[in-house]
Amino acid sequence: MSFSSFGEVTSYLDSFSYMQTSTPGLLREARLERMSLLLDALSHPEESFKAVHIAGSKGKGSTCCYLSALLTASGHRTGLYLSPHLCDYRERFSLNGTFFDDSLLISIADRLEKTVRNFSLPPEYGQEKPSTFELYTAYAYMLFKAAGCEYAVIETGLGGRLDATNTLDPIASIITPIELEHTSVLGSTIEKIATEKSKIIKKNRPVFLSMLKMDAMQVMKKEAEKQNSVLYSLSDELMSLRTDTRECGEVCTFSFADGYEASLVLSMHGEVQAENAALALLAARKLGFYVKGESEKALEKAALPGRFEMHSYRGKPVVMDVCHTKVSTLHTVSSFTALYPQRNSNACIFAAIDGKDIEGMLSIILPAFRKVVISKPDSFRKSDSRKIYEKALAMKSDDNIVVYEEECRSALDEAVSDSSAVLIAGSFYLASRFGGILEC
């Protein structure tokens, strides 16, 4: 088999999404063994670069982007692996902030397919062929090796302990804020979820922590001590952080304990981006990737799709932001209302996948918007959008208007019909549906 286009490559990789293992949970519990065997068959491309591994409930994609930009600005050839994508599969793997050439994407896929064709996993590890996420992860590593990357910034997919990326031996780990998410898989408490994510901390390798809740911080400190890992926390290192969401960008000022200060205008809007940028900056400075002046410029230019993107639809401002926890929704709504404070003339389009704190997110959205349009993420991830609509109806106040519009253009039309500004908030898989309409 030989691929003739990148579209054929993604269709092939996605075709491994729906295979089922005969033993429930076996595929997940055997994740690391499965990935290790696949990497064995590929001669371990991940050993060709130095990796920084990032986990968390929110902000990990943006933090990855910022750190990748800092590494590139310091003169290093840097790969970046993210998931999922918003508009283009190539968002998942990039080189120094740009997409790989299609010729390389196709040639590496040919090599991967040849290996997979003759590769089978033992029956005790579940399905005999790798999963889609395992294949995308291996594919990214192969691309980074072929491109001669010195470093790669790797985002976990789900959790940390059993994530396919946790076969890496990184030079450092980074943990972003932790909230209730994927509770059916990761656990029903912050402590349990933090425990899953703490397992990316590796022996004798530093770990960098965002501003975590106390129960999550205790878990991280315990794991860092167990692994003899030097721990750096924004709570200790950052003396002050001021941020203001404006149309020109996120205007923020940092002051660190060692005397370093910076004033930046980040391209990625939203008050959470200031903390994400500060975390990436802390890691870069401690790891020796900071270049005065150049690092600050790199942070200001860094951008990812779906992070408080500002658009216009039928003459109305539309902001699209990926937020899938209660706290991230609070930050998103706070940033949005800083720009558009007229609550009675604003609307929000919302959807989320199963396993999220739906009630918590709705408790933030409903008081902040007169109209809330419940829509549906794409079909790739499970979501009971009708149940979310019913919950929103039960929670709404007398002056709320709550409607259901499954189709995205209809949802946008409904939202802007009698509103002055619109927020599209919630699942990554919701934002991806609006890409074509809003020219992602």
List keywords for this structure.
440 residues, alpha/beta, 8-stranded mixed beta sheet, 6-stranded mixed beta sheet, 39% helix, globular, 17 strands, single chain
Describe this structure in words.
Helix content is 39%, strand content 19%. It has helices at residues 6-14, 26-29, 31-41, 60-73, 102-117, 132-146, 183-186, 190-198, 214-226, 234-237, 271-287, 294-301, 326-339, 358-368, 385-395, 408-416, 428-431; strands spanning 50-55, 78-81, 93-95, 98-99, 151-155, 172-175, 207-209, 231-233, 238-246, 249-256, 261-266, 309-313, 316-322, 346-351, 371-374, 401-404, 421-426. The strands form three sheets. It has an eight-stranded mixed β-sheet, with helices on both faces. A six-stranded mixed β-sheet has the order 12-13-17-14-15-16, sandwiched between helices. The chain is globular, with a radius of gyration of 21 Å. The relative contact order is 0.12. Mean pLDDT is 91; it is low at 19-24.
- Which overall shape is indicated by the principal axes computed on the Cα atoms? globular
> Average pLDDT across residues?
91
Largest sheet: 8 strands, mixed
Task: Give the strand content.
Answer: 15-25%
Structural class: alpha/beta
Q: Walk across the major sheet and give the strand order.
A: 4-3-2-5-1-6-7-8
Distance between the termini: 32 Å
Q: How many β-strand stretches?
A: 17
Cα-atom radius of gyration: 21 Å
Helix content: 25-40%
Specify the number of helices: 17
The parts where pLDDT drops under 50 for at least 5 residues are 19-24
